[in-house]
Amino acid sequence: MPGIVIIGAQWGDEGKGKVTDLFAERADAIVRFQGGNNAGHTIVRDGEIWKLHLMPSGILHPGKLCVIGNGVVIDPKILTDELDDLRRRNVDTSGLRISANAHLIMPYHMLLDHAGEIKLGKLQIGTTRRGIGPCYADKAARLGIRVQDLLDEKILKKKIVAAMEPKRLSLREFARDPSLDLQAMTEEYLTYGHRIKQYIADTSRLVLERLDEGELVVFEGAQGTLLDIDHGTYPFVTSSNPIAGSATIGAGVGPKDIDEVWGITKAYSTRVGSGPFPTEIEGAFGDELRERGAEFGTTTGRARRVGWLDLVALKYAARINSLTALAITKLDVLSGFKTLQVCTRYRGPEDVEFDHFPYHQTALHHSTGAYEELPGWEEDISRCRTEDELPKNARDYLQYVSDFVKVPVALIGVGPARDEVIWTQAGAGMYGSALA
Ligand code: GDP
Ligand code: IMO
Ligand code: MG
Q1: Could you read off the pLDDT of 64-105 as tens digits, one per residue?
Q2: Which residue among 21, 28, 41, 61 is the active-site one?
Q3: Which of 245, 328, 266 has the alpha carbon at shortest distance from 3?
Q4: Could you tell which of 60, 330, 334, 422 is best to mutate to test the pocket of ligand 1, judged by most ligand atoms within 8 Å of the CB?
Q5: What pLDDT digit, counting tens, does each position of 288-322 carry?
Q6: Could you tell me whether strands 339-347 and 309-310 are parallel, antiparallel, or unpaired per DSSP bridges?
Q7: Among 90, 127, 141, 186, which is most buried by a count of CB atoms within 10 Å?
């Protein structure tokens, strides 16, 4: 103990990579527990930018145990490319351990993801087309190929044949695609196996050992609460559970091993891909906020949709995740707006207002934000390092959020770099804050 879970409290891209990197300074182990290379976690340190997709955001701290847990889906090509890239940049990757039980994204998963989106046409989810959904589907159908299968040619080939058999019809249009050739695919994946063999381990045991020794373990979520397949805006979600409870399943620890849950949220909202977004801002003002916040995806480069902070959704995230602390990032992006809107209720059909996150898809699709207006601030806050240095209106904005959601704000982001943060008094005494 202690175990700290870091999750996205919105639709992803809240700044989880940056917060995990900060925590990793003192943590002994950093564990990814779900998602795959649909994630793009950015770390900015000493003017250098790091974009990680599969690698836990602790990898820049030499010697730390960095685990890719059983709940992650791994594209081994991306993994080995990422390893090569890190080594090229002189990063010590010896602390990496990969769960033997993690599932592999296969070439047919990527093709099916792509084809599925095209078939949906206007109804498409806007996936990252990385094969995430089809891979988790195979996992549930018990047709998945796992990391451990890479170490045995016979088993690997047998499992590929079994996995492809029921997909014959949907893969027919790709009959000539060289990536689907059984022999070539088997050889390619055996090569990946050979390359990552040294990292494959029983990661659940490694993580529990650290917890038993009283060391600090950080569980790094990918995506965000509203993209959760059970609790998000289904079907416009990812195919895993990015919420805190999933850390136990995806890392192989028990619920009692988690001591704190930190929800990361921007000071406003963004979403990539399709689906309901009640506080979305379109038009020129939306463009301005997008530019100011540099809201273009880390993984696909797509322009992110932007909106006001949605406190109805954030309160829901606090409930679903048992949040113990909030980290509010990108507060600096809101400098210079005369007034700021925060969504405290939703307005549904016939102007009916309600203050809870609706469980019914139709209700959510017809909801728009109803707002409270709060005064903005003019000052550049990127050099502030204590709460006292923030303009009063910025402090009041944070207080409003914290009071509404009933979770203390423990960390504030005022710029992309790792030192551009403020640790607050409210978070004092938490394990996470002890890292300041
Ligand atoms: P993640 O997927 O949750 O790790 O977030 P991303 O890395 O995809 O997106 C967050 C973006 O915001 C990255 O480009 C970060 O460098 C940047 N960022 C993080 N915190 C702050 C902050 O407090 N202020 C500003 N201006 N940028 C930030
Ligand atoms: P990080 O970890 C933001 C979105 C996609 C799409 C939906 C389903 O960087 O916060 P998928 O490829 O997962 O089947 O796509 O989920 N999505 C993300 N949005 N940040 C992410 O990760 C995302 N990962 C997936 O845009 O709407
Ligand atoms: Mg991201």
Answers
A1: 999 999 999 999 999 999 999 999 999 999 999 999 999 999
A2: 41
A3: 245
A4: 330
A5: 999 999 999 877 888 999 999 999 999 999 999 99
A6: parallel
A7: 127
